[in-house]
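Comment thread on ticket #2218

A.B. wrote:
> Attaching the input chain for the structure job we discussed in standup.
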Amino acid sequence: MNILASGFHKAKEGQGSLETARNKVRHLLHQRNSVLFSYGQVGTPVGEMTENLLRSDNIIASTWIRCMDCNDESSLHDDLQTCVIQCISDCDCTTSTCLQKRFKDHYPRKKCVRCNGGTDKIMQFNVVLKILVFSVANPSVRVSKRIGFRDGESVVVFTLKGIVYFGDFHYTAWIFTHGSVWYNDGMVSGRASTYEKQICEFTDQELSTCNGKTLALVFYAQG
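C.D. wrote:
> Ran it. Output below, let me know if you need it in another format.
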């Protein structure tokens, strides 16, 4: 991610181009996994690419199970090393609900080894993130404009910054800045984006689809 950010900064300062930044990252991903990130006209799931770009060398969040009766805890050894959250809910919900369910959700497949009681699956962030991304697999998920969670005595709030949509083997995006929503389709308008309207004019349901395409990724950042 640092390489991409550095490339964007150089492009902003007139010392490079966005295409150069993209190609450097593409080469790096190809070196990591030449099958998943191959050259040529071969599609790569944007969720896989985002997970790799936002992967950390350190553990971002830890997951364990807790007995609802005796409070016994045990690690699931399912640590998170990317700020991409898989939103795979099988029911109608929002991105905010997906996050809250990751923090604490009933875990019916496992019973407590001490008392055979029911268990909850618990997740806790080890670091306070600046960026949070949801990879959405269910088209019924609705986009929350703001999400947050408690960190000790304070509440960390994230605001919506971007949505990537997928359909017909093609990705498009809405970009959110200073309350305005901009539409981008690189195949049609290249770098140029078209103003849509203010984010306050959108409902959560309206943000879930765009020109017949459905959610793929939802980006949030602090502030």
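A.B. wrote:
> Thanks. Noting for the ticket: The mean pLDDT is 88.
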